[in-house]
Design a protein that fits this description.
Layout lengths: L15 E8 L3 E9 L5 E10 L6 H4 L4 H21 L3 E6 L1 H5 L3 H11 L4 E3 L2 H13 L8 E7 L4 E7 L7 E5 L3 H8 L7 H30 L6 E5 L1 H10 L7 H4 L3 E3 H12 L3 H5 L12 H15 L3 E4 L4 H11 L13 H4 L5 E3 L13
Parallel strand pairs: 1-4, 3-12, 4-5, 6-9, 9-11
Antiparallel strand pairs: 1-2, 2-3, 6-7, 7-8, 10-11
Length: 368
């Protein structure tokens, strides 16, 4: 798509196609969206692939050859399709397990060799900030203070936001995620009470410093650490929301701003733990390829809610991928402001191309 030009200002207008790629520890995601001259940002293509990049990482602190090859095969296809779209800018970020792996930079160089766009290993601060921006683009403004978290395969990003203030009050990342917790404590299915307890203690301990910092900021700015809203994003959270609503076909704008109670999450965790992988796979809404790590992810969700003493969780489908997209759009704005909201209305009527992953472990997304 050829970009338009703004004759009055002499600046190139930012309208056109933009792309983003999120290389996660469990999944790889890609989106192409069109920023239209009427101000709307409309997704036109979306892909989600389960590649299990973190599988086997805990043994030697290295990405395994098999996991890298699976992920590279997916990224090669994504690179080819992105070239067909010819987006103005592509932002690509790799997260937790690549950041931690001794051979993470080597893996990213291999990715870079096959792609026409730059791929970067995101720092903890960058990942947390981008995830937050993506979440805030779709969340309905709750009152006052919000704790936002992005629960990935190997790390969890947390942030404290006062919706009256454009800058987060605290932001950070901890190295615990659905895939790494599963590999360390929850490889058996069904899962025993003892295994669940050990996993919960580990998650609680890793989360504790971040929780204490956030509570300290809440007492400083709000006078109390109680009464905060907690919002979450990424695969575990959105899968739980799809399960709760018995969603046979995943529709992201039906997930955004959905509320899950802590009581339902606790009951669901105990139920999932008692099932084998095949039985979990039959649950409506549970993403294919997530049967083994859904228990680990749900353990972390429950510990976050317990840590902040809240009774419910607000769900966001948007997160790091959307944050990367906004970052790319921001780089081309010149005198323009990037629109903040990406709502169901902005997506209405836009064509969505759905692509299944090479291993058939992909969840369909319908943007309307």
């Amino acid at each position: 798509m050829s970009p338009a030009f703004c004759v009055e200002s002499g600046h190139e207008a930012p309208w056109g196609l933009y792309g983003a790629v999120d290389i996660g520890s469990h999944t790889v995601r890609m989106v192409v969206a069109e920023w239209r001259d009427d101000g709307r940002v409309c997704p036109v293509h979306h892909e989600r692939h389960v590649t299990r990049l973190a599988q086997g990482f805990g043994e030697k602190g290295m990405l395994t050859q098999e996991a890298m090859e699976r992920t590279e095969a997916v990224l090669s296809g994504i690179a080819s399709r992105l070239r067909d779209f010819e987006p103005r800018v592509v932002r690509c970020g790799a997260t937790g397990v690549v950041r931690r792996a001794a051979n993470g930079p080597d893996f990213l160089r291999r990715v870079q060799d096959m792609a026409s766009w730059k791929a970067s290993i995101l720092s903890e601060a960058q990942e947390a900030a981008l995830s937050l921006r993506g979440m805030l683009s779709v969340l309905e403004p709750p009152e006052d203070f919000v704790v936002c978290f992005d629960l990935g395969g190997s790390s969890t990003e947390l942030a404290l936001v006062d919706r009256r203030n454009p800058s987060p009050l605290w932001i950070g990342s901890v190295f615990v995620g659905a895939a790494t917790l599963t590999e360390a404590y929850l490889q058996e299915a069904p899962t025993s009470f003892e295994q669940l307890s050990r996993a919960a203690r580990h998650a609680r301990g890793v989360l504790k410093p971040a929780v204490e910092n956030i509570c300290e900021e809440l007492r400083r700015y709000a006078g109390s650490a109680k009464g905060v809203t907690v919002a979450g994003t990424a695969g575990t959270v959105t899968t739980l929301a799809a399960m709760e609503s018995r969603m046979e076909r995943y529709i992201p704008y039906c997930i955004n701003n959905r509320s899950l109670t802590k009581a339902w999450i606790a009951e669901t965790l105990r139920s999932l733990a008692g099932m084998g992988l095949e039985e979990r796979g039959g649950i409506v809404g549970l993403e294919s390829g997530r049967e083994d790590i859904i228990v680990g992810g749900t353990v972390i969700v429950e510990e976050i809610l317990n840590s902040f003493g809240v009774s419910s969780l607000l769900v966001s489908d948007a997160g790091l991928l959307e944050g990367l997209l906004w970052d790319g759009m921001q780089s081309c704005t010149a005198p323009y402001d990037v629109p903040w909201q990406w709502s169901a209305q902005s997506a209405s009527g836009c064509k969505t191309a759905i692509t299944r992953s090479v291993n058939a472990q992909n969840r369909e997304k319908d943007y309307g």
